[in-house]
Amino acid sequence: MVHKIIKLAVTDVRFPTSLEQHGSDAMHRDPDYSAAYVVISTDVGLRGYGLTFTVGRGTEIVVCAVEALAGLVVGKSLEEIISDFRGFYRLLTSDGQMRWIGPEKGVIHLATAAVLNAVWDLWARAEGKPLWKLLVDMDPKQIVSCIDFRYITDALTEQEALDILMKAQEGKQQREDQMLKEGYPAYTTSCAWMGYSDQQLKQLCTDALNNGWTKFKMKVGADLEDDIRRCRLIRQMIGPDNTLMIDANQRWDVGEAIAWVSRLAEFRPLWIEEPTSPDDILGHAAISKALAPLGIRVATGEQCHNRVMFKQFLQASALQFVQIDSCRLGSVNENLAVLLMAHKFQVPVCPHAGGVGLCELVQHLILFDYICVSADLNNRMCEYVDHLHEHFTSPAVIRNACYMPPKDPGYSSEMLESSVHTHQYPEGDVWKTLLNK
Amino acid sequence: MVHKIIKLAVTDVRFPTSLEQHGSDAMHRDPDYSAAYVVISTDVGLRGYGLTFTVGRGTEIVVCAVEALAGLVVGKSLEEIISDFRGFYRLLTSDGQMRWIGPEKGVIHLATAAVLNAVWDLWARAEGKPLWKLLVDMDPKQIVSCIDFRYITDALTEQEALDILMKAQEGKQQREDQMLKEGYPAYTTSCAWMGYSDQQLKQLCTDALNNGWTKFKMKVGADLEDDIRRCRLIRQMIGPDNTLMIDANQRWDVGEAIAWVSRLAEFRPLWIEEPTSPDDILGHAAISKALAPLGIRVATGEQCHNRVMFKQFLQASALQFVQIDSCRLGSVNENLAVLLMAHKFQVPVCPHAGGVGLCELVQHLILFDYICVSADLNNRMCEYVDHLHEHFTSPAVIRNACYMPPKDPGYSSEMLESSVHTHQYPEGDVWKTLLNK
C-alpha cells in the first residue's frame, strides 16, 4: 500500500506553565511550554503526528518555517521518502535558498525536526509498531541509509556506523526483553525548578523518594549563596547515596562556571549541565578539564543544534554526558548519527526530556540506543519531568523510576485533539481567557 | 531632542537574481538575493533603515521573526537604547522565551541584525554622520558599552577591549584622512560565479582588470576537473602577480577539502573560503594545518553565526582571515566584539559582502576597523560584488578598486522606495509578472 502525503497542517500550541513557575531556570524565568505541532495526512487516511518543543513567544516563527517546508513534503509518498531517507533529509536541510537562514540550526532546524518527527511517526504507524521497535527491527544497512554523513566523516564513516550496529546485534533480543520487563532508568527534574519555594521543593523530594526515584536534578546559576543553600537542602533530603545533578542553563562565562561549580563540589553533583553557551565547545572543554579533579563532569546537548556540533564536543572531550534532544536535532535521522558517534567516543547518552512531548518522543531513541548501539546502562539515564503528559494519546509510562517501552504504534507524538483545540495560540479557549484578563 | 520609536515596519524584498545565475555557487545554485527590510519611524519624523540579507525562500520566516521582536523596540526612545546599548542588545537576544529558538543563531539572530541595523542607522542619522564616522568619533568607553561580553571573557575582557581602542587612538586622524583620500582596498567576486560560462568569465576578467582590480575570487567545489580548468583560465587571465582566492561555500567534508584544495595549489590561491560546515571549528583547524605547508590559508565567517563561534575559530587557529558579515552577526554591536577579538589574536579581517546591501553596510565596519582598531592594511581587503547597488539611496562607491568612505548620514541601508515597492514578495510588480508566467 502506498501512503501519499496529501496535506501538512501545523498548529501553535502553548501551555501557560509560567503561571506556576514550572520549567523556570536561570535563563528562562517564565517559560510557557509550547510546540509547533504538525499533522500530515495521507490519501489512505493514515496520519503522522510530529512536533518541536518551544517555550512560548517565537513559536509562531517556527510555525511559519514549517509552512515553508511543507511544499517539500506534500505530494511525496511515505515509500518514496523512506526508500531514500538520507536524500529526503538533505532535501529539507539543504534547500539552495532556505539553507541560508540556517543551515541546520535555529528556527529552520526546529521546523525540520517537527516535520520529520511526523514522517517517522507515520512510518511507524504504517508498520503498526512503536517507533523504537521499528528501529530495533530494522536492518543495520537501512538504519545507516537514514543518516546524512555530510560533515561528520572525519569522526564517523558510514562503514564504522555499520560495524557498530552489526556488532551490537549480539544480545539484542535479551536487551529488548529486559527493557520490556524493567524499562529504561530515568531521573527526575520535577522537584527543583528555580522558581519553587523550599517548602515545595521538600514536599516534591519526599514524594519522589516515596515513588522510588534515586536520581535528582536541580537548577542553579542565579545566585551562588542561594544555590549552596538549596544544594544543601536537597542533598539532605535525598541522602548521601542518591545521585544529584545540577543544571545552570548557560548562565555563566567559562571562568565563572569553574569558580561557581567548584563552590558546589561539596554536594557531590554527578554533572554540571549547560555551564555556558551551547555553542562554546572549547569553553566546555576547559570547564571539563578544570572540574575533573573535583569529580564533577559536564553534560550538555539540549541546545546543541546539530551533529556537527556534537561531533566537535566529542572530539574535544568537551562533555562527559551527551544529552540528545528529539526536537532540536533533525529528528530520528540526525539523532542516529549522534548516538553512533557517542558510542564510538565511548561517552554515555543521557537524553534531554521534559517540556511538551520530549519524554514521549526521546524514550524511543534511548531504547534503541540501549538495544542496538550501546548495550550498556552504566552511568546512563533518561530525564523525566512530570508535566503535560495528559495531553498525549500515548503518554510516557514510568514504573519504579524507569520508562516502560511504549506499545502503541508510532512515535507517541499525537496530542489529544481537545488539548490542541483549547491551547491553540492565541485563539484557543485557554488563551482567550488569559489574554482577556 | 528625544527620538521615540513609534513604529517598526518590515518588508519581504526579493530580486530574481537566479534568472541570470548571479550569486550561484556549489551550494546555492539559484539564489534570489533578498532582504528582510526594516523601517523604524520616530515621533519626530526621523527614520532608521535596516536589513538582513537572505537568498529567496525563507525570507518570510525572517520577516515573521522581525515582527516578533518589534514589541521590544517600539515605544523605546533612541536615547534610552543608546544609553544602555549592551542592555538593549541583551534584551533582544536573551528574551526568556525567544532565546530557545536561537539563541543568537539562525532566523532569530538574522532578525535581530535587521532590527539593530535600523537602530544604528537611526542613531547615525540623528547625529548627522555616516555610521563609520559616528563610530570613529565615539569615545572608546562608549564603544565598549555597546558590546555584550557574555561568553567571550575567556578570550577578551572589557578592559582588554578598552586597551586596544585606547592604543589605536594614536594616528587615528591620519588614517581617517588616508581613507577619505584613497579608500579601503577591495577585491571582486563578480567575475566567476559558478553558473557563468567561460566566455562570460573571460569578458568579466578583462573588464575588471581594465578597471584596476588586482584581487579576484572564484567559486569552486562542484567538480574538481572543472575547477582545475577554470582556475587555470582565471590565473591566465589575471596573470601571476594578481591575487586569486577560491570559495567552496561549505561543499566538502574535512578530508575531502584537504585533498581537493591540494589539487588546486598550483594556481596559488591566497585562501580557500568556507571549505566545510560553518559550524566545524575543529574541522577548519585541521584543514588550516594541512594546507599551511602549501601556502594556502583558510577564510570563513559569512555564516559564522555569533561571537562565541568566532571566538573559538580564533582560539583554535581555525581561520587565517576573519570574514565578518554585517547582517548575520548581531549588527554593529556584535561585529565590534569580533573586530576586537580578531585584533587580539592578530588575524586580519576581510569582510563578506555582495548580496543585497552587504557592501553598503560592511564598508562602515571595516573603515572603523582600520581607523580605530587594526591600523593595518596588510593582507586586508573588503569583498565587492557589483549587483543591486542601484536600489540604494547611497550606493557604495568604488574608485580604483577601493571603497570610498560614505558621506551621507546613516548606515547606507536605505533602499529606494520604488525598488522596495516593485520587488516586494509576492505582491510587487516584478514578482506578479514572474509568478504569472
From TrEMBL, chains A, B:
- Which leading EC class covers this enzyme? lyase
Tell me the protein's name: Mitochondrial enolase superfamily member 1
GO molecular function of the protein, one example? L-fuconate dehydratase activity
Q: Fetch the Pfam families from UniProt.
A: MR_MLE_C, MR_MLE_N
Residue ranges constituting the Mandelate racemase/muconate lactonizing enzyme C-terminal domain according to the UniProt record: 198-294
Does the keyword section mention DNA repair?
Answer: no
Gene Ontology biological-process entries: amino acid catabolic process; carbohydrate catabolic process
Q: Which organism is it from?
A: Myripristis murdjan (pinecone soldierfish)
Q: What is its EC number?
A: 4.2.1.68
Q: Gene name, please?
A: ENOSF1
Q: Could you confirm whether the keyword Transmembrane helix appears in this record?
A: no
> What SUPFAM superfamilies does the record point to?
Enolase C-terminal domain-like, Enolase N-terminal domain-like
Catalytic activity reported: L-fuconate = 2-dehydro-3-deoxy-L-fuconate + H2O
Give the keywords, sorted.
Answer: Lyase, Magnesium, Metal-binding
Into which family does the record put it? Belongs to the mandelate racemase/muconate lactonizing enzyme family. ENOSF1 subfamily.
The signal peptide, as residue positions, is none
Q: Which cofactor does it need?
A: Mg(2+)
